[in-house]
Write the structure tokens for this entry.
Amino acid sequence: LKRKRLAAQKAREELESNAQLLDIRRRKAWNDVLEAQSQLRLATGTIAQAEENPRVQRECYQAGTITISDLLQAQLIVQQACDRQTDARTRLRMSMVEYRLR
């Protein structure tokens, strides 16, 4: 009888411990979703800023005040910003899937 009580107590403690671990994992997954959303907002804002630069650079290039490499650099910055946004969207979707699995 004593062994059965100890086994039952051990099982209850293990169940409680596992429940706490699941709760911690669930909270971490939710925090990951929030962080990914924040990163996506930041990346989207960066694109808006980066897209303005090539327009200005194109006008300067047409006026002859900058070189083609300056114009290409501005376009590269836009592409990099788009890549970061794509990465942020991917992280968000992966975080959401992970959260749903918890």
